[in-house]
Amino acid sequence: MSNADIREPAVAGKFYSDSAPKLRSAIEQFLQDALPVKVKKPVAIIVPHAGYIFSGQICADGFKQVSHEKYDVIVILGTNHTNPGFQNISLYPGSGFRTPLGTALIDRSIVSALIKEAPADCTLDTSLHESEHSVEVMVPFIQVIFPEAKIVPAVVGSPDTQMCARFGRALAKVLKNRRALIVTSSDLSHYPSAENADFVDRETLAAVAKLDPGIFQATLKSQANRSIPNLYTSVCGEAPILVTMAAAGALGAARGVVVSYANSGDMSVGDRSRVVGYGTVVFTAEDEDNEKPDAASSRRAAAAVSEDLTPSDKKTLLAFARKTLSRIFTTDTVPLARGFDERLQQPWGVFVTLRKKGDLRGCIGRMIADEPLVKLVGVMSLQAAFNDRRFPQLTADELKDIEIEISVLTPMKQVAGANDIVVGRDGVLLSKDSHSAVFLPQVATEQGWNREQMLDHLCLKAGLTAGSWKKGAKFSTFQAIVFSESQFK
User: How far is CA 22 from the centre of its chain?
Assistant: First the structure.
């Protein structure tokens, strides 16, 4: 095996860490957090291929479904992002794919067999693979979970129904009686709002799970005709999904099971106004639907929503904040905020404060309760660590000396004037002209300020002169549930 035969990584350091320890740790932690196995007899999985910081957890959910199996060969069906004029199937002709974890060997006997079975559709073309990320980002997962398995990288050029069906049948014929898995690489909707993506993507996943190409393509066409704002596409891997449906059906798959879903807006680093959707589906040879409702989800759905946070809730939020900071330093990824009690999924405003040996090291929050509390805790933890302009960015070495404090905010109410503000109880938002600033309730107490001193300092923070609050200023107050890690040690 010469270096000329090896495909070098194109997106290491971009879509996933180029550090082998960080990369392995990221995948292992994603797998630890993955949803439990839902089916037996898996034949194929459909998983997303975006940067791991966005889609890695959903991808791990898919790989978790097959992690208990043993495979000799894994076929990776990638999406054609790089050559819109290419219409066929490009098989990689070399000996391996290299990642920071080493080189995954290619099963060249399978490649040769596929060329023989589908000569009109398959070609050996390295150019389709050189910068294609959809295949590459699957390889590290395979290297961690199935280190002995060989791979067969394929890029499916276009969603030509007949070609995809032919190649799917050829793939099934070649893989029959082999310990083989098909991994299909596809993201879902591109760039609608998170709310629109959630609706469109769940509809798409339901269609994929029916294992019927006609229903799947009709669903995509229907979505395209609805003029959903900024919906560029409902699925970028239509072609490899069509191949997988044909191959999985020929290999005995009876149905598809939707395992998990999220979009980039669900992540602590995401923007909910413009997202990409990620889902995972497993095609299984099980005839009966043996899925059982997730007990934890049922309990969460039945839980009464309360405005009071329990000690357990507080510890959970603090742990998630620390986990978010630890993961960004150790794996270049962040955890997905899911699996939490219903109380913590309600929209609350929140501030996260970082202190290093008692001194303020960062504090940023969001007053508007527009996203789930637990997700905002992750978002604000990162903001406090890296985007508080009063301080340099937090470093990994500092994290052990950091204490995390969380302030969960009650809804804000405008008050008539300064005399309605109670120091120590109320947080205050001051607004005057185009200037505004906010203090949490605990700030005045920690600094030993009375009301006038607090408002003078609030003016200075807003870029006004001290005393400006006395004329023309508006005040809104709120309270906070404040808790820190030291309370639970």
Answer: 17
C-alpha 460/C-alpha 41 separation (Å) is: 65
In tens, the pLDDT along 358-394 reads 999 999 999 888 899 999 999 999 999 999 999 999 9
Q: Of 334, 277, 337, nearest to 49 (Cα)?
A: 277
Amino acid at 168: G
Longest dimension (CA), the chain: 85
Which positions of the chain have pLDDT values less than 70? 1-4, 288-307
- Structural domains of the chain sorted by starting position, each given as residue range(s) with its CATH number in brackets: 3-284 (3.40.830.10), 332-488 (3.30.1490.150)
Choose among 338, 201, 261: nearest CA to 58. Answer: 261
pLDDT of residue 96: 97
CB atoms within 10 A of CB 313: 20
CA–CA gap between residue 191 and residue 272 (Å, rounded): 10
pLDDT value, residue 2: 55
CA 341 from centroid of its chain's CA atoms: 19
Q: Report d(CA 391, CA 353) in Å as an integer.
A: 13
Q: Over the Cα atoms of the chain, what is R_g? A: 26
Token pair of 144, please?
A: 């961690």
Q: Are 181 and 45 in contact (CB under 8 A)?
A: yes
Place of tokens 């909707």: 189
- The total of other beta-carbon atoms located within 10 Å of residue 298's CB is 11
Q: Is residue 101 classed exposed, middle or buried when 0-12, 13-18 and 19+ CB atoms within 10 A define those classes?
A: buried
pLDDT at 302: 32
What is the bridge-based pairing of β-strands 73-79 and 180-185? parallel
In whole angstroms, give the CA distance from residue 131 to residue 136: 9
Contact between 265 and 372 (Cβ < 8 Å): no
What is the number of other CB atoms lying within 10 angstroms of the CB of residue 390? 8
Distances (CA, A) of 262 to 97, 206, 276: 28, 14, 9
Q: One-letter amino acid identity for 296?
A: A
Distance between CA atoms of 145 and 31, rounded to whole angstroms? Answer: 9
